[in-house]
């Protein structure tokens, strides 16, 4: 007789990183140890700098936990693992090649950025807001006796454990987005932007933000007027747009261009992550229009 299969589920209330540690290590100053080095972290609420390792920031306890004990708890880990394992060797390979041979990593990088977007609190807020306002219904298991049940359709708003179910849906939707790989962004034109430590790229707890000229991002996406700038190291970023690329695949950016790229992750930041402490950062944050949740595509 074959033994019963025992499935060990991940523990609850783990330290779940919303932004992966491998990604954050790209913003360590070159003088820092890649494993134990410390980042410069600016807390927007307290307007204060501190030093922290990638393990110590951008996490929440139980952020990817489903409300019930089920194998689905492992789904988020599985969805993240492959891309997380790639980002550090890809970034180091680009640096070793002096930023000139990055295009063979293009699809993996764009898929990684989509993963960061799907893991963000902006993405979760949008999923939850849409479900609450759309009058959506779900199938709820209703027990008739101790051994039988049937499904009934119930509005989200009439569900006692609504917040738990909305969180579960946001996790499932994030995993579905990640499974799409680069998605619509795969058709974008991408340029590698490069800078030096005198004017480094920065990131935040919301590292991927789409920029545009107006509130209707879907229309702007169709018109090709949106753009995405994603720093993935203090010295490099990818800039994507629906329009055809103009110029070389790698380009050293001006000071103003670096500021524009940094404005994306800074626009939604609760914490800003940098290789060095920059003067007048608070003034710069006050000049940037705050990002709003973007509907999943």
Number of strands: 13
What's the SSE pattern?
EHEEEHHHEEHEEEHEEEHEH
What is the first-to-last residue Cα distance?
48 Å
Share of β-strand residues: 15-25%
Q: State the helical fraction.
A: 25-40%
Widest sheet, order of strands: 9-10-11-7-12
Count of helices?
8
Give unreliable regions as ranges: 1-8
Largest sheet: 5 strands, mixed
In round numbers, the mean pLDDT is 84
| Overall tally of domains | 1
Coarse shape: globular
Spatial extent as radius of gyration: 21 Å
Backbone structural class:
alpha+beta
Could you characterize the architecture of this molecule?
- By secondary structure, the protein is an alpha+beta fold.
- The protein has one domain (15-287).
- Helix content is 33%, strand content 20%.
- It contains 8 helices and 13 strands.
- The protein has a 5-stranded mixed sheet with strand order 9-10-11-7-12. It has a 4-stranded antiparallel sheet with strand order 3-2-13-8, with helices on one face. Strands 1-4 form a two-stranded antiparallel sheet.
- The N and C termini lie far apart (48 Å).
Quick summary:
With 297 residues, the chain is an alpha+beta fold. It has 8 helices and 13 strands.
